[in-house]
Amino acid sequence: MDIVRSACCTILAVWLALPFAGWAGNCSGTNFNSTTHWEEVEIGKGSKVATHRHTSTIRSDDTSAPYHMASGECVGAYLIGADGRMQGSGSCARADKDGDVLYEEWVMPSGTALEGTWRIVGGTGKFAKATGNARWEASLLGPKSAAVRWSGQCD
pLDDT tens, 38-56? Predict the structure, then answer.
């Protein structure tokens, strides 16, 4: 009986892990973002608060990753100092071809560079138990678009 129970538990564990098997470990890619909303409000003496919304599509270096070509929207808020230093944070939700949604939170620490960290905070369907974290750096492609290169750990 213990052998049967052990075999069933092993089969169940492997079956549950299959959706994540293709993307455990190191991960990297580029997100292509297009700004749909940017609004700044001056608070005083050159300091501003800004809100931001953009569409985003993930292009994973591993094209078999389940989040490859997932797309959706991101929102964020920034504090902008009179000296141009900026810090911000936000969230993204991107759906894959099956309609499952991957959730992400990102942070841009105070500075003048467009870089920071993000972490995966779950999602729906195959992404319900997804975790991960990475560093990112954005390169502006135009006044309303950017390519965001990232690499890290996805599980």
Answer: 999 999 999 999 999 999 9
Look up the domain containing 58 and give its range: 2-154
How far is 40 from 50, CA to CA, in rounded Å?
Answer: 4
Q: In Å, how far are 52, 112, 115, 127 from 83, measured between CA atoms?
A: 20, 9, 18, 40
Specify the pTM: 0.80
Say how far apart CA 126 and CA 46 lie, in whole Å: 45
Q: How do residues 119-138 score in pLDDT, each as one tens digit?
A: 999 999 999 999 999 999 99
The structural domain count of the chain equals 1
Distances (CA, A) of 124 to 11, 30, 48, 149: 23, 22, 35, 24
Structural tokens at position 69:
């070509």
